Amino acid sequence: MAIELGSVVEGKVTRIMNFGAFVELEEGKVGLIHISEVADEYVNSVSDFLNEGDTVQAKVISIDQNGKIALSIKKLKQQQKQEAEKQFRTPKGRPAGRGGDFKPNRQTSASFEDKLSKFLKDSDERLTDLKRKTDSKRGGRGSRRSD
């Protein structure tokens, strides 16, 4: 099978670097999974997710003029998730098994806003606490002076 853009390939991780992992594909070709394409979450170290000798499946996201192959595990998982969601939809586009009274879950935007407001509140509390601690170490002399 020829390696084409958008196809899913399987290979063995041969080397892990700070910037990604090299994967040996069929016909002796080598592809690179960049650190940003390893997982949906923040990847501090590729070795937290992959090890040398692991067999992985990835999607081919680009092939440049020199034959360098860029791979993505992240995009493959997103594609698989979308395909799985399509299987559970009726012909009208509604999720199956809900009898038409399904209301989409809108927590994603509310969830983000909740997280943001919680972060701001925690940040303000920490700054206030830090200010109190630094004032107490100085003895509070900076805020009140007597002449």
Structural overview:
The chain is α+β, with helices and mostly antiparallel strands and 147 residues long. The chain has helices at 73-87, 107-137; strands at 8-17, 20-24, 30-34, 55-63, 69-72. A five-stranded mixed β-barrel has the order 1-2-3-5-4. The mean pLDDT is 81.
The helix/strand series, from N terminus to C terminus, equals: EEEEEHH
Report how far apart the termini are: 87 Å
Radius of gyration: 25 Å
Looking at how many chains there are and whether they match, the oligomeric state comes to single chain
Number of strands: 5
Percent helix, as a range, is 25-40%
Shape: elongated
Note the total helix count: 2
Strand content: 15-25%
Unreliable runs? none
Structural class of the helices, strands and pairings?
A: alpha+beta
Overall mean confidence score, pLDDT? 81
What order do the strands of the largest sheet run in, or round the barrel if closed? 1-2-3-5-4
Largest sheet: 5 strands, mixed, barrel
